[in-house]
Amino acid sequence: MRADAERNRAAALAAAEAAYAEDGINVALNEIARRANIGNATLYRHFPTREALLAEVYSSHLERYCALAEEAAQAEDPVIALRDCIVATCALQAENRGLADLLASLQPVSPHVEQLRARHCRAVAALFERAVGSGKIRADAGPSDLAVLLIANAGLIHRTVEHAPRSSARLVALWLGGILCGAVPVPTPAAPSDPEIRRALHD
């Protein structure tokens, strides 16, 4: 690849990473090209589809997402591991709106992303099975509950991250309190203030 082509590709990836993190995965490719200061044709030459660009930007993020679940599934104490894995996963969402969207979706992106999703699904299923088997959490808790939390957290992040940034961590803590039934402590941030919530609702 020529040096100028490499620079254009790197500019496109940097612009996409920033745009997705700020605004979610529905940012138009034309807007990413504008931010990268390259032409639309140049962007499409490197990334012919939106999915190709998403896969390039988020593969490493999703590798980390999988690693959290796989390490938790092998941990000595499955209940503490479940708590820490869910807190860390939802914190990843809170740091990046695009990742928040991807973790709450099964939208096809690439074969590699599908493999990562399958790995994560297996690890989370094993983690919940061990945690429930310990008798220390709700017997009906399972991976589908985590999926609902990730969907809710993604929406919450889009609405509150700027004006009430503690909202996500508090939601996660209250959710964990509901399934862990006091088995392990769950640090709970203070609720967002009324002015913060009002700003989020008006935005």
Q: In the residues, how many domains can be counted?
A: 2
Shape: flat
CATH topology of the largest domain: Tetracycline Repressor, domain 2
Second-tier CATH architecture of the largest domain = Orthogonal Bundle
Q: Give a short account of the largest sheet.
A: none
Number of separate strands: 0
Helix proportion: over 70%
Task: Write up this protein.
This protein has 203 residues and is mainly alpha-helical. The chain folds into two domains: 1-48, Homeodomain-like (Arc Repressor Mutant, subunit A, Orthogonal Bundle); 58-202, Tetracycline Repressor, domain 2 (Orthogonal Bundle), CATH 1.10.357.10. It is 73% helix and 0% strand. It is built from ten helices and no strands. It has helices spanning 3-23, 29-36, 40-46, 50-73, 78-95, 97-103, 111-133, 143-160, 167-180, 194-202. The mean pLDDT is 94.
